[in-house]
Design brief:
heterodimer; A: 199 residues; mainly alpha; 0% strand; B: 49 residues; little secondary structure; 1 helix; 8% strand
């Protein structure tokens, strides 16, 4: 089996199942097969939120990993994981809009301007929308060079997502800070001087 | 509980009761105004929300 076959036929399906895992667990919770705790809506938000951050960081790890491991075929996983991240983001946002704010635009607006943590999450969500919409082959072709520039917005969206998480947490900032450290480390690989060292 | 006054981190106007999916409007004194409001007479309920 070639490395390309390993990546597309084994690693990609495995990553697909791993990315689907949290959604399956929540679905089982809705069906009453697993216990989602006393506040299932909160469990949904925490689970989808953490999954989003993990998936975004994994997509950001793809290009450094390709260089360091000399495994360029890893690029075959990136779009799928990015689209998964957006799927969880959509779920996270819709749960907030529908279950927390009952789709009441006045309530949503008031909550957003009063609480910076909501505003930060909202902006991150809005940034991810055009990235998801331009993830098709056709859009990548049509946008050409601009596609890469547009998709650099994922750095901003991830940073805002981590900030949103740190702000939502009240006292225990530890796992938010772990996300932040990983994010900063992955961003260091984007510095041209560091990139050159990787060869 | 005074639903007209926000907690510093969140609105107190609506609540999700355990076992329910959607939120509902929170009532003054958690719905026991007739029974308990007299006990809070003279208190600043905007401060002691």
């Amino acid at each position: 089996m070639t490395r390309l076959q390993f990546t597309t036929r084994l690693l990609k399906p495995a990553a697909f199942l791993a990315a689907l895992g949290p959604a399956l667990w929540l679905a089982l919770g809705v069906l009453g097969r697993v216990d989602l705790g006393a506040d299932p809506v909160k469990t949904f938000q925490v689970t989808t939120g953490l999954t989003i951050l993990v998936l975004l960081l994994v997509t950001l790890a793809i290009s450094p990993a390709r260089k360091i491991l000399h495994w360029s075929e890893l690029i075959r996983l990136r779009r799928m994981l990015g689209v998964f991240a957006f799927g969880y983001t959509l779920a996270h946002a819709l749960i907030y809009f529908i279950l927390d704010q009952s789709l009441d635009l006045a309530l949503i607006w008031e909550d957003t301007i009063k609480h910076p943590r909501i505003a930060v999450g909202f902006v991150a969500f809005l940034i991810l929308i055009p990235l998801a919409l331009t993830s098709t082959d056709g859009m990548i072709r049509r946008l050409g060079k601009r596609w890469g520039r547009l998709h650099r917005l994922v750095y901003l969206a991830t940073a805002l997502g981590i900030l949103h998480y740190l702000m939502v947490q009240k006292l225990d900032l530890r796992d938010g800070l772990v996300f932040l450290v990983v994010f900063v480390a992955l961003m260091l690989f984007r510095i041209p001087a560091v990139k050159g060292q990787l060869g | 509980m005074n639903p007209a006054v926000d907690h510093p981190r969140w609105s107190q106007a609506r609540e999700r009761r355990l076992g329910e999916v959607f939120k509902r409007k929170t009532l003054p004194f958690n719905g026991y105004a007739d029974e308990v409001a007299s006990m809070y007479a003279g208190m600043d309920l905007a401060k002691n929300f």
